[in-house]
Design a protein that fits this description.
The chain is elongated and about 80 Å long. It has 2 domains: about 130 residues, Jelly Rolls (Sandwich), CATH 2.60.120.10; about 210 residues, no CATH class. It is built from 8 helices and 18 strands. By secondary structure, it is an alpha+beta fold. It is about 25% helix and about 25% strand. About 30% of the residues are buried. The model has no long low-confidence stretch (mean pLDDT about 90). It has a 6-stranded antiparallel beta sheet, with helices on one face.
Length: about 375
Amino acid sequence: MTPQIEPVHAPYTGGEPFEFGTHSNDFLLHREKALATETFTVRVPAGRAVPEHVHTDMEQTFIFVSGIGAATLRRGDDVRVHPCRPGDTLFVPTGWHHTVAAPGIEGCVYVTVNAFVAEAERIGDSATEHAEIAAEGFRTNTAATVAAVAAEPDGPALLRCAEASFRFDRDATRMWPQDFTQFDATLTGDPGSYRVRRLGPFEYVETVTHVPRVLDTVLADRLHHAVKGMLPVYVEGSQSPLSVKPPCSASDLDVLLVVESAEDVALAHKALEALRAVQDDVAVPLSPGVVHAEWLGLPNFYSALCLDPASPDRAWWTADPEQRRSEVVRRQREGLKVLHDAPYVRELLDRTLTVLDPDLPGVTEWRITPRWRGYV
């Protein structure tokens, strides 16, 4: 007699997590609630991989929703490697050994749909039982699989971490990258070869040519002294030596005034006027903004450098390219650790509202977006 099967609705971020150590499976549809199907979300942390394994009792379909995945499928001498971007689908037949790595800094997420083969003996009567069996097998080949993941991400992987937006579960326990609408250029292209532009309701990618940076230590001193110590002054964006995107002909000079209290906000307006007085001495448009001090710990502010001549940040003006790249990777990873501390991020949002927008009513949903705008 066929068991009674009921429809199931599960939010993308609402799965029941099973932690393997290398990755997590968040069960959306348990196999015991269906005849021939199982569905779960797979979250692979940055620089890790799902250990290589094979299935004899199921076909699998992976739908990638965020981050960059590097999938390797092997059957005998036939080895196939696929870079997997948000929106991509990968079908894995029975008998194919497979692994998915996350070479990018923010990791990757994909939804897996298992379709059980009718004539095959099913391994594990429940989703949890199968996961426990798989976990035991993963322990034997985890080291080799993880060692195969690239130690350092490439330029596009660095940039996409700063350009991806992030949202949180309603209960603020987990962070999820959001990449559903990213352009191919931002996913795989050379970060220095394009800019994303907006024209009315349209957003598009344009090819650009590099130009030298106009911001040197002399101009940095000038900008710092212009505000007469009223507030800390930072540079951010392509004019910063730490930016993975070099300046192009359309680049502005993004200058940040850093505030910590409502009193600082009032002071920031005076500092903005002082910066505008320097505009005639700058060869590119000056784009000043006001930011909360704790924003600087988020990954999309990885290139922010203090312009104070006494700041340790001055070392990055003369550092060699490899040193700067290592610092960018370090800042991105530290910023993502902050994002994964969801209670802290909620506290940061509340403190930001208290300082910059105290009249805003209660907030129940939020996300961190790469295309931030400074408060002026």
